[in-house]
Each structure stands twice: as C-alpha cells, then as structure tokens.
Write a structure and sequence with these properties.
This protein is α/β, with parallel strands linked by helices. It has 2 domains: about 170 residues, Rossmann fold; about 160 residues, Glycogen Phosphorylase B (Rossmann fold, 3-Layer(aba) Sandwich), CATH 3.40.50.2000. Helices cover about 45% and strands about 15% of the residues. It is built from 14 helices and 12 strands. The longest helix is centred in the N-terminal third of the chain and has 17 residues.
C-alpha cells in the first residue's frame, strides 16, 4: 500500500519540487511506494479554497496511516493540519523553514514561524534535507530526532565547458534569497576581465524585474526556467557554477554541478558546505565565499578569472568529488527509515 505524499502543485521548476518528485520515484524503486498528491495554492498562504482541498485530502486518509507532507504545503496552515494529527502519523519534510525566506516583514516571519512550530510539534516525525538543516530545525523549534534525507544526485557526463574559465552559470529561482543582485554587483566589479554569465531559473514580480534590468545592462543572459535536455545543455557549457544564495538548506545545484565535474563558487551558508564536501584527497571542489555581500564574491570570481592554477586545482578536485556523490537510492533508504519509524506508535 502506498503512502500519500502531499505536495504543492508545481508552478515552475524548483529544488523542492525536484526533490519531491525524485524521492517519490526512488521510494517506489526500493519497494516503499508513495503516492504524490498535488494541492494547488499559493503556499504557505494559500487561501481558503486551497486549505479546503488540503483538508479533503487528509480526511480521505484512513486512521493510523502515515502521511508524508511537504512543509511548504503544511507548515503554514496548522488550523487545517492539526485536527488530523492525532488520528494520522504525520511526517513533515522541511525544505526551508518558512521564516527563512529572505525579505519577509518581521511580523509575517514571526507568524509563519509560530505556525510551523505548531505543526512540527504535532507531527510524528520531522525530516530536513541536510544535517545542518536538521540541527537547525531541531534547535529552533525544540524538537528531538529531526531526520536528515539529503538529496541524491544523478550521474551526468563531464561538462565540456568553454575555455576553462569564461562561462559562469547560475541556476536558481530569481528571488531575494537566491542573491542574484549580489551576483550582478560582483560581476560589475570585474573590470577588464573576460567572462560570460547565464542565469537559469524562473522569476516574477518586482524583484525579478529589477534583476533582469540590471542583468541586461551587464550583458548577463537571463535564460528563464530550463529543464531536461535544455538544463543539461546549460551545465555542459559551464566552466564555473555560481550560487550566491543568502540562505540555503542544502543546494542541489552544487551537487548537480559536481556531478559534471564543474567547480562551484558559493556563499558558505547553511548546508552549502555540506553539499560541496571534500574530494577524497581532502581538497575543496570549489570556493566558499564569506556571506557578507558582493565584495568577497567579486574577489573570488576575479581569482577564478585570473588564476589558471586555481582553476586547474578546482576542476581536478570537482572530478575527484564526482564519484563520491550519493544517488537517490540512498536518499530513498533514509526516507523509508523515517516513514517506517513514524508508523510505529
């Protein structure tokens, strides 16, 4: 019998949506199937119609059953979830704590934080997507035993790149948390250097409009959301992947780059160092940048552009790290253990 996995209906590509789909596939392959149930809505503030849809989904689950819930679709609506917490075994998957989304007004962040705390306190189990995130969620919400199910990584061919230096790639939704404004400011300081930058990812609203306007002035190409072969093609021509996120629980982009032997420059926030890891020889397959603004990122990119020795060392380290990356099968085994543990009273 499959376990319901309640997720937000995807409106555009994201790391969370990708994780949900891939972990569901992988669980099926190891004989622990889950059934994806998509609930449309502007989560975590979906409105009464979407909340009613979520309530109907939970009402249709028999007493005592395990239900896996994406935190985005559950942690903001305790009034809908908590009435089912005693009769169901709820497992909540926290991709990103709701209050950690960058740029929220203080009052809204505090309200979302309180709502999330109420839902997680009532859950049979909570799971996060990195060891760092599991520790943080546990400390912040006073929970013990928060599980960790890190994303897997698919094998991929080595990227051909360009001249080994010039092509920079950023794969991230255009939101304040992802730091495109910091990346563009850092690039604007690379006077006299030859570089190209492509930004892949969806984005709407005033912030995305500002980013696109600044990018156009710098010659940065905003490619929009890409998936499948188109995204693979973007990675295949990258020399360096840049992740300027202000906050990140893991950073699947990091391991997707390493799977292709492409080094990464990223702010050393949250679970990013964990995703980057070390090559077997102890070397770092990228540059971890101090998260204090565009200056350190610009300095790191300047070093990349001007130091062929550094580029060679980072590429070699990325290629050594590549076979060490865990696949989705390991992720599925970890999630299955969480689900099985939640099923026990």
């Amino acid at each position: 019998m499959s376990t319901p996995f309640v997720v937000p209906a995807p409106s555009s590509p994201s790391g969370g949506n990708t994780f949900d789909a891939r972990i569901a596939e992988a669980l099926g392959r190891i004989g622990r199937p889950v059934r994806l149930v998509e609930v449309p809505g502007a989560w975590p503030r979906p409105g009464t119609g979407a909340e009613a849809d979520l309530a109907r989904v939970l009402e249709g689950v028999p007493d005592g059953a395990v239900v896996l819930l994406d935190g985005l679709v559950s942690c903001g609506v305790p009034e809908t979830v908590l009435p089912h917490a005693r009769r169901l075994r709820l497992v909540v998957l926290v991709h990103l704590p709701l209050a950690d989304e960058w740029g929220l007004p203080a009052g809204e962040a505090a309200d979302l934080d309180a709502r999330e705390r109420a839902v997680l306190a009532a859950a049979a189990a909570t799971v996060a997507t990195s060891a760092w995130a599991a520790r943080r969620v546990g400390r912040h919400h006073g929970l013990e035993g928060v599980g960790c199910v890190a994303p897997g990584t698919d094998p991929a061919p080595l990227a051909a790149g360009t001249d080994g230096a010039r092509r920079l790639l950023c794969v991230a939704s255009v939101t304040p948390r992802k730091g495109h404004d910091l990346l563009l400011e850092a690039l604007s300081r690379l006077e006299g250097l030859s570089w190209e930058c492509v930004c892949v990812g969806p984005g709407d609203g005033e912030h995305a409009d500002r980013v696109r306007s600044r990018a156009e002035g710098l010659g940065v190409r905003m490619a929009g959301p890409l998936t499948g072969a188109d995204l693979d093609a973007a990675y295949s021509t990258a020399d360096l992947v840049v992740l300027p996120s202000r906050a990140e629980t893991f950073g699947m982009v990091v391991t997707e780059a390493l799977a292709r032997g492409v080094p990464v420059a990223a702010f050393g926030v949250g679970g990013v160092p964990e995703a980057l890891g070390l090559a077997p020889d102890g070397s770092l397959p990228g540059i971890l940048v101090e998260p204090v603004g565009a200056g350190p990122l610009s300095q790191a990119l300047r070093r990349w552009c001007t130091d062929p020795g550094l580029r060679g060392r980072l590429r070699a380290s990325a290629r050594l790290r590549r076979p060490e990356l865990a696949g989705w099968g390991r992720s599925a085994q970890a999630m299955a253990a969480v689900l099985d543990g939640a099923a026990r009273p």
